[in-house]
Amino acid sequence: MTVYAMQVAFRYEFDRPPGAGRQLFRILPAEIPGRQNLLHAEIRIEPDPAETAEFTDFQGIRVIEMVMPQGLTELEFVLEAEVERIAHQIGLDISTPLSVLPAEIAAYRGVDPAAPHHYLTPTARIPLMPKVAEYAARATQKTVTTREALEAFGRALHRDMAFDAEATDVNTPPAQAFAQRRGVCQDFAQIMVGGLRSLGIPAAYVGGYLRTLPPPGQPRLVGADATHAWVRGWCGTETGWVDYDPTNGCFALGDHIEIGFGRDYDDVAPVTGMLRLEGEQTGSHSVDIEEAPLQTHPGGWSPSVLDLPARPRQRREDSEDPIPETDPRI
């Protein structure tokens, strides 16, 4: 068991004061029984938002909704939290043989958020990619079990692609990132998701964080100063979902703190929103995570209630505006 103290900050500056806007933040660490516990969380928003609300989406991700007042010159949104990550080992490979996996997928009768059916088909972000499919087939041609294929494909991407924060942006198609063999965690993850789906393996995109400082004597993981992304593959009825981080070439275990998972980046983007804006804006975000001693907080942390600043949002009939995406990287 490891307790992490973390701070996640988003900061914006505006050349000219904007009109009102609405933002959705998917940044809270998830509650995962037996795996991850959110012990404490505080959120600071400066200046105070006009309205706030919180809801849980279909995938089970807790979403903070904020209405930005008019006339801002800058905005800061800071999450401070403590998360308990319960150590576990990857264990023996008892996953389903690839040849049997289609039958086990067909036998799954649920339509819950973790049902493998949701994660088999292409999406707008992760379409069919013939070159990636060919690469995935070559990388896994000698594998037998689903987990073996998952790891072989992830290791191949880690070997053949370079982490390069300047090579892509948030809207770069994964096929383009794969063609240039360069990108960030988002690119690695979406390429791997697409390749696994081409093999008939249900695959989800996972958003979260990495610890900033590794244990003594261990190398620092790539992507630890920002939100991170990795992959979740369904390895059959007995094994279920297994997480793999192709950016770092490892299974996602104790160093990874999960926010949530979805079909692609759009389902777990840390910030989305809309803003009436004239002129330029600049934005940045930072993540700092380190091990911390277990502490007792007065009042504790209630998973069902989040103490948000400002008044709750009053939903109106005309408030169903589309919420286009801003550009924090994973």
Kindly describe this structure:
The chain has 330 residues and is α+β, with helices and mostly antiparallel strands. It has a domain at 101-268: C8orf32 fold (Roll), CATH 3.10.620. 17% of the residues lie in helices and 31% in strands. The protein has six helices and 15 strands. The protein has helices at 101-107, 130-139, 146-160, 174-180, 185-198, 265-268; strands at 2-14, 21-25, 36-46, 51-56, 62-68, 74-85, 162-163, 182-183, 203-210, 228-234, 241-245, 250-251, 256-262, 271-275, 281-291. The strands form four sheets. The chain has a five-stranded antiparallel β-sheet. The chain has a four-stranded antiparallel β-sheet with strand order 3-6-1-15, with no helix packed on it. It is globular. The model is unreliable at 299-305 and 314-327 (pLDDT under 50).
